[in-house]
Amino acid sequence: MNVCQECRGCCKFKKDDEYFAPLFTKSELEKIKADKKMFIRRSKNVYQIKLVKSKIDKDILVCPFLDEESHLCKIYANRPFDCRFWPFIFMKEKDKIQLGCFKKEFCLITKRMSDEEFNNYLNSVFVWLEKNKIFELIKKHPSLIWEKEKDVIVIKEFSI
User: Fold this and answer.
1) CA–CA separation, 51 vs 18, rounded Å?
2) Most buried pick, 5, 21, 27, 150, via CB within 10 A?
3) How far apart are CA 85 and CA 45, in angstroms?
C-alpha cells in the first residue's frame, strides 16, 4: 500500500505536536541500526524518535531521518509501522481500539481525494492491515496505540 506523495508533511511537526513523533518497535529500531540516544523509550519494546530543529524553518521540528533538502527519508525502505500507516492511527477508547484517520487537512493525499477515492483507499488499508498482520503487531506492542485524538475521524472500532 503506497499512495504517499512524498511531501514529507508527516515528517515535520509544530512544537505543540511533538508528541506525534514516530514510534518504533525494538525490532524496527534494530533493523535501521540507529543509535538509541536518538530515541525516548516509551515502553519495554517501543521507542519514540527525538525530533530536531528544522534547518529551513526554525519554528518546525523534523524527524532526523528526513533530508530536508531532497525531501527524502533516509530510512524509507525500513521506515516504521507508524510512518507507513500515516494518516491512519489506532487509538484507545475504553475497552476498544479505534481505527482513525487524521482529518483531510493534515495530509495532502487525502485532502485531494474524492469520497469515492478515499473509500477505495480505505479498502486497500483494510487489506494491508490483514496481509501484514498489523492487529498482531499492535496487540504485541500496545504502546503503538495512541490516546484519543481530537483531529482524527473514527472509521471503525475493534474489540481488544
Assistant:
1) 7
2) 21
3) 19
Query: How many domains, in total, are found in the chain?
Result: 1
- Which structural domain range is residue 33 located in? 9-159
User: 55 or 9, which is more confident?
Assistant: 55
Residue 3 within any structural domain of the chain: no
Nearest to 142 by CA among 42, 60, 19: 42
**Range of lowest pLDDT (24-33, 49-58, 104-113):** 104-113
For residue 4, tell me if it sits in a domain: no
pTM (2 decimals)?
A: 0.84
Could you tell me whether strands 72-73 and 39-43 are parallel, antiparallel, or unpaired per DSSP bridges?
A: unpaired
| Residue 2 belongs to some domain of the structure | no
- Residue 1 falls inside a structural domain: no
Share of the chain above pLDDT 90, in %: 44
DSSP string, 15-45: GGGGGGSPEEEHHHHHHHT--GGGEEEEETT
Q: pLDDT per residue over 96-151, tens digit each? A: 899 999 887 777 778 888 999 989 989 998 998 889 888 898 889 998 998 888 88
CA 28/CA 36 separation, integer angstroms: 12
Residues facing residue 54 across a β-bridge: none
